[in-house]
Design a protein that fits this description.
- The chain is α+β, with helices and mostly antiparallel strands.
- The chain contains 13 helices and 4 strands.
- The radius of gyration is 31 Å and the shape is elongated.
Length: 308
C-alpha cells in the first residue's frame, strides 16, 4: 500500500513537472544560476587556497647561529625544536652550505665575491628554517626562543645570533587574516545565494501550486491528506533541482577547460585538472544542493498554500 502511494506521488509529480513546462524551465534556470555561482565560489576558494598555500610555503622562521658554533650544539637546538607540536619541519643549513648558497646567488657580483675571498674565513653562520603546522602557530614558536623561556638552556640561546620572526610577523599575520577572511566571505556569499534561490524557487512553486488549485480542491474533497497533496509538488521541486544540477555540471565542463588553458598561471591552479580530479565530490555537492533547495522550497510552498 505504501509503495503504491509513493509510486502515485512520484508519477503525479513527474507529470506536473512536464505539464508545467515553461514554469519548470524557469525554475531550472534560476536554480542553475544559483548553483553555478555557488560552484564558482568553490573554484575561487580552490584557486585562492592554492595561491595562499604557495605563499604560506615560503613563510618560515629562520634562526641564525653565530659563525663557528659547534654543530653538535646546533643539532641539540634542532632536536628540541622538532619536538614542539606546532613545528611541521626544521631544515638545517650548515656554514659551508650557507656560504655555497651565498656565492651561487651572487655569482655575477664580482666585487662581493672578491671581498668574501679576502676575508679568508666563512663569515656566515649555520641556520635553521622552521615551518609551522599552521600560520597562527608561528608566534608560539617564536616565544620558545624568548629569554624568559627555560626550555632552551642559556648555552643554546647564546649561540643564536638572530631570529627573523619579527620581520616576517606582519606578513604572517596579514596572510592569516586573508585566509580567514576569504573563508568567511565565501561562506557568507553562499548563504545569501542559497536564501535567494530558496525564495525564488519558493515563489515559482507557489505559482505551480496555484495553477493546480482545481486539482488540489478535488483531492481535498475526496479526503486526500496534506502529505499526499504535498508529495507531487515536492517531487517536482526535486526534479527541478536535479535538472539544474545536471545543467550546471555540463556548463562547468567547457568553462573549466577554458580557464585551465588560459588562466592557470594567473589563478595559480589548473581548474580543469581540479574539476576532473574532484568531479565526483563537485557533482555530489551540486546534486545534493539542487535536490535539497528544490525539495525544501516546494515543501514550504505547499505547506503555506494548504494552510489557507
Amino acid at each position: 500500500m505504501l509503495f503504491t502511494h509513493v509510486k502515485r506521488i512520484v508519477r503525479t509529480g513527474f507529470h506536473n513537472f512536464i505539464r508545467n513546462g515553461f514554469t519548470s524551465v524557469a525554475s531550472i534556470l534560476v536554480m542553475t544560476i544559483t548553483l553555478f555561482v555557488i560552484t564558482s565560489l568553490v573554484f575561487i576558494q580552490a584557486s585562492l587556497s592554492a595561491s595562499l598555500n604557495n605563499i604560506e610555503s615560503k613563510v618560515d622562521i629562520t634562526v641564525y647561529f653565530i659563525p663557528g658554533s659547534l654543530e653538535s650544539d646546533i643539532q641539540n637546538v634542532q632536536s628540541s625544536i622538532e619536538k614542539l607540536p606546532e613545528v611541521k619541519e626544521v631544515i638545517y643549513t650548515s656554514q659551508t652550505e650557507a656560504l655555497a648558497d651565498f656565492k651561487s646567488k651572487h655569482a655575477n657580483d664580482y666585487l662581493t665575491l672578491q671581498a668574501l675571498d679576502e676575508l679568508n674565513a666563512n663569515p656566515l653562520g649555520a641556520t635553521l628554517q622552521i615551518k609551522a603546522q599552521d600560520l597562527s602557530q608561528y608566534d608560539s614558536i617564536a616565544k620558545y626562543f624568548s629569554g624568559t623561556n627555560n626550555v632552551l638552556s642559556s648555552g643554546a640561546l647564546s649561540i643564536i645570533s638572530k631570529i627573523d620572526y619579527n620581520q616576517n610577523k606582519a606578513v604572517i599575520n596579514k596572510l592569516n587574516s586573508i585566509i580567514n577572511g576569504a573563508n568567511k566571505l565565501g561562506l557568507g556569499i553562499s548563504l545569501i545565494l542559497i536564501f535567494i534561490s530558496v525564495l525564488i524557487t519558493f515563489n515559482t512553486m507557489r505559482l505551480i501550486i496555484f495553477m493546480s488549485r482545481d486539482e488540489i480542491a478535488v483531492m481535498r474533497l475526496v479526503g486526500a491528506g496534506s502529505k499526499y497533496i504535498q508529495g507531487p509538488f515536492i517531487v517536482s521541486g526535486i526534479l527541478v533541482g536535479f535538472s539544474a544540477s545536471i545543467l550546471t555540471i555540463l556548463l562547468f565542463f567547457p568553462v573549466s577547460i577554458w580557464l585551465g588553458n588560459n588562466m592557470s598561471s594567473f589563478l595559480g591552479i589548473n581548474l580543469f585538472q581540479y574539476f576532473k580530479s574532484n568531479f565526483f565530490q563537485l557533482f555530489i555537492i551540486m546534486l545534493s544542493s539542487g535536490v535539497l533547495l528544490g525539495g525544501i522550497s516546494s515543501a514550504l510552498a505547499a505547506m503555506r498554500y494548504l494552510r489557507k
